[in-house]
Amino acid sequence: MSNIHTTALIDDGAKIGNNVTIGPFVTISSETTIGDNTTVDAYAVIAGKTTIGKGNHIFSHAVVGSIPQDLKFKGEEVELIIGDNNKIREFTLINPGTEGGGGVTKIGNNNLLMGYVHLGHDVIMGNNCILANGATLAGHVILGNNVVIGGLTPVHQFVKIGDFAMIAGASALSQDIPPFCLAEGNRATLRGLNLTGLRRNLERDEINALKSAYKELFESGDALQESAEKLLNRTVSKNVKKLVEFIIVSKRGIPFIRKNNNG
To answer: Is 36 a catalytic residue?
Structure first.
């Protein structure tokens, strides 16, 4: 049985799971599906074709599933899919996909989106990510798992951020950030590995392998793509392979300060 406030406006056709709590003055569209044990706080808006999994908490004044902020959008059928156990804090805005981007914005499980976060159209987010207050992702951004983005950081459209990467607060990111790396600045550049995150999740030998790989890739002064391809051919570390494969296929390039071979 669900607990739905009498002032909530729920359009006919919406599908509400078991043990769902919906607060005062919430607005929910007819194409919405909400999974079990989810809470939607006062004044939140859930619009469009939006599917929300189990155990989520959508806080007051969040707007989820409103039409893309894209002038090319002409009312096509698009959707937003949200996984399980996410926390979507106050005044967060999440848009669905667009026809040109595949039509779907998708969020995984166990993510924390703090206040005033924006996820633009066609964003794909993995699991266990944390976006601090005011982080803004433009359209078509792809995040891996366990990504942390600091507050007030904008991310340019089509940027990809790999697993366990961290972007410092008040940065401005316009290029791809490989897995396991830390970036900071305006414009953001690599500053090293995300060692705090790695120590919480990887064994020491894997961290050491990543340290060696990072030094070879970004501190040797050699051409990045050539270094990545050479390293891929000889490494036995699955995480180093993930790192170099990301670099090899990057479309927007990797932002780092190149050292010369003499220094």
So the answer is: no
122 is catalytic: yes
Give, in words, the CATH class of 198-249. Answer: mainly alpha
For residue 131, give Cα distances in angstroms to 36, 50, 115, 137, 169.
Answer: 24, 21, 9, 10, 10
Q: Do 184 and 198 contact (CB within 8 A), yes or no?
A: no
Sorted by where each begins, the domain ranges of the chain are 3-158, 198-249
Each residue of 94-119: pLDDT tens digit?
999 999 999 999 999 999 999 999 99
Half-sphere exposure of 100 (CA within 13 A, CB side): 10
Catalytic site includes residue 197: no
- Going through 186-240 in order, the beta strands assigned E by DSSP cover 188-193
Candidates 118, 121, 140, 156; catalytic one: 121
* Identical fold, 3-158 and 198-249: no
Catalytic residue among 70, 122, 163, 176: 122
Name the fold adopted by 3-158.
UDP N-Acetylglucosamine Acyltransferase; domain 1 (2.160.10)
pLDDT digits (tens, 9 = 90+) for 135-171: 999 999 999 999 999 999 999 999 999 999 999 999 9
pLDDT at residue 259, as a whole number:
77
What CA–CA distance (Å, rounded) separates 227 from 248?
Answer: 10
Q: Dihedral, CA atoms, 11, 12, 15, 18, nearest 10 degrees?
A: 90
Are 26 and 9 in contact, with CB atoms under 8 Å apart?
yes
Q: Which among 48, 139, 144, 197 is annotated as catalytic?
A: 139
Q: How many residues does the chain have?
A: 263
